[in-house]
Sequence to fold (489 residues):
Amino acid sequence: MSEKTTVAGVAVDTRHWIGGERVASAGTFTDHSPLDGVALGEISRGGAAEAEAAVAAAKAAFPAWAATPRAERARILHAIADGVEKRLEDLANVETLDNGALLRSHRRGVMPRVAHNFRFFADWLLTLDHEDFDTRGHTNHVSWDPAGPCVLITPWNAPLMLATWKVAPALAAGDTVILKPAEWSPLTASLLADIADAAGLPAGVLNVVQGYGTEAGSTLVAHPDVRRISFTGSVPTAKRIAAAAAAHLTPLSLELGGKSPLLVFADADLDLAVDLAVEQYDNAGQVCLAATRILVESSIAEEFTERFKVKAAALTQGDPREEATDLGPTIHPRQLEKVDGFVQRALAAGARAVIGGGPNSELGGLYYRPTLLTDVAQDSEIVQEEVFGPVLTLQTFDTEDEAVALANDTRFGLAATLATGDPERAERVTARLVAGTVWVNCFFVRDLQAPFGGSRLSGVGREGGTWSFDFYCDLKNTVTAPKGWNNHG
Ligand code: NAD
Fold:
């Protein structure tokens, strides 16, 4: 079996990375490019044995890494960031061929952000502190102790960015890591292992196990030696993982799906509101935070829709490697089928396609036309369920109360976006929205020091800044008596 594949001119090891060594599995799975269906490589298909080996390696490496001084851990994380920056072109090109997202975004936004993930958590680690406090002369001292091996399970829509948003704080915290990337986009995780190794990360501190969730993933999350599980993905998988984690009460962080609203009030800057709406087609709509439900005040709905049509018509769909492309393919034939299923059922139930409504037959392949559906009922599937493709719905409201009621009326609570020219309205509405993140007159501004996560079915817990360290560490409070204190009088 070949141990490497060449993708966009870059050699990528197709094996696992366990205990500082490349490890092959007897079986493989084929990784296809969403651009043209071409096979990119035969990837080692990990199962229980590889998962066991990776947890054992992470467990063995933990004491030394946990004892490594913070400054040294931070230095190595910065060296990983340097490595990411050095290989930025490789990472961007491989990621685009593997998951179909825009090359220009990978170059300018995503991969720099990957490097920033490491730099940010390295620096934040050095500031992590809680002031000592006094209890009747006793000193309370709070510390963030490394917790142990962490299993990190990630999806395919932003593979390396979402992986490193977990890997970086876990490593900074002094934990060791087993990363299981998604089977539809496994390649950049392998490159990350090379980069971390070259940066001097000790063997076993970062392990990468490739394979299916139901095979490698399910063994990892059920393992008694795992101290934390951080998962980004879908709600049904999260429920399975939570059930497995329950056997050992392994603490979990879950970052899940969404059905987020964009509320457009009549007092909004309409150009801005339309821009915000069209931006939701980014990454072919395969973005958990996407505001897929556009809620517009009735008095401006017609004008909004007309301007939306003009702006959306100007989007260029095509090869994500081209600079001019705004919208690439969906990731996989199964995803395209799923997206189209939602749309066709909505149309059959009476929805009207303002634009789009099916696959892009001119381009063929996995390209789905940017779609806006209206005449949709609030309790319909298309309004209530996450599509995860370039599909938006448009509904109208007459009052602020109605807008808030519609916005909050799903099982999710990941994000919400507001377009309004009235700061007092923004404050009132924001206070009533159920969402982990609210953006007012902007979208996708994400600072790593902010808490990130979802309410309701969109997630459990928050990561980001100190919240990441709270999750990846065992917090300890040490109470020390004053000198000469005798508790027994
Ligand atoms: P998914 O749940 O199908 O898979 C995610 C990961 O879980 C993959 O690596 C998969 O192999 C693994 N997995 C599957 N079954 C498993 C099991 N039984 N045990 C352990 N691991 C298992 O999700 P997906 O289709 O890859 O990703 C899309 C979903 O992710 C969408 O719902 C999207 O909203 C969500 N998402 C959320 C965020 C966020 O930050 N909230 C970010 C990106 C994507």
Remarks:
- The chain is about 40% helix and 20% strand.
- The domain at 4-256+458-477 is CATH 3.40.605.10 (Aldehyde Dehydrogenase; Chain A, domain 1).
- Residues 153-157, 162, 180, 182-183, 212-214, 217-218, 221, 232-234, 237, 240-241, 255-258, 288, 386, 388, 414, 454, 459 surround nicotinamide-adenine-dinucleotide (CB under 6 Å).
